[in-house]
Amino acid sequence: MCGRFNRHHPAAEVGRRFGVTPLAAAGVAAYNIAPTQPVPVVIADVSRRMIICHWGLIPHWAPDDSMASRMINARAETLAEKPAFREPLARRRCLVPADGFYEWPKKGAHAGQIIEVARADGELMAMAGLWEEWRAADGTVRRTFTIITVEPNALMEQYHHRMPAILRRADETVWLDPSTDPAAARKLLRSYPDDDLVAHPVGRERLSRQDDQG
Q1: Is residue 133 flagged as an active site residue?
Q2: Which one is predicted more confidently, 180 or 203?
Q3: Is the pLDDT assigned to residue 211 strictly greater than 60?
Q4: Quick one: which of 5, 115, 94 has its CA closest to 42?
Q5: For residues 58 and 144, what is the distance between their CA atoms, to the nearest angstrom?
Q6: Which of 7, 38, 55, 97 is most buried (CB neighbours < 10 A)?
């Protein structure tokens, strides 16, 4: 799964990387992004743009927001079967910009150690996600998202039995395009190449680090 991640590239670099005008929030370094927090994500409806969504998808038909904490991840294999994900898969796909993500292995040689996984070249990654709009009883609209997970590659299986669906650069536009058929979009959800990722242990001080890189 993906339960925490980080993003610390400056806003201008995030904007150039994803071809959008970055929001101010994209320039605030965040080393411990957690479920329910507001996060900048990239969508493409009329045009490609960045919006703020809360992490933890709430289906538009949900009576309340209690599902959010249980919907931070969505398995790629069952997206088309789950009512909560079926419509967003067809209409509301997004990219989640990140520098890396964390895993806490529960067994094996790395048990109890915080592991950070990032691109080997130090560049931003695009995790595949789905987003949704939910309206509360008082009329307030909340945008939310989930991060899609896939089977782990050889590197990741040392730490967890799932990993985020990190999109290849060439696949990002196809994933975002609303005209892409859901079946075709699902084919883009694959384990990322082992050699393009690195994993290393980090201390808890890494998660509490705060830098304003505006």
Answers
A1: no
A2: 180
A3: no
A4: 94
A5: 6
A6: 55
What domains sit in the chain, N to C, each tagged with a CATH number? 5-207 (3.90.1680.10)
Q: Which two tokens stand for residue 154?
A: 């050889």
Among candidate residues 2, 53, 94, 172, the one labeled active-site is 2
> What do you get for the CA distance between the two ends of the chain, in Å?
29
Q: How confident is the model over 94-140, as pLDDT tens digits? A: 999 999 999 998 877 777 899 999 999 999 999 999 999 999 999 99
Q: Under a CB-based contact definition with an 8 Å cutoff, are residues 59 and 84 in contact?
A: yes
Instruction: Give yes or no: 103 in active site.
Output: yes
Residue-wise pLDDT for 154-178, tens only, equals: 999 999 999 999 999 999 999 999 9
In sequence order, the 6+-apart residues with CB closer than 8 A to the CB of 159 are 103, 105, 110, 115, 117, 152, 199
Burial class (CB in 10 A: 0-12, 13-18, 19+), 156: buried
| Catalytic residue (choose from 13, 77, 87, 103) | 103
pTM to 2 decimal places: 0.95
Cα three-residue angle 167-113-154, rounded to 5 degrees: 40
For 102, the token pair is 């964390």
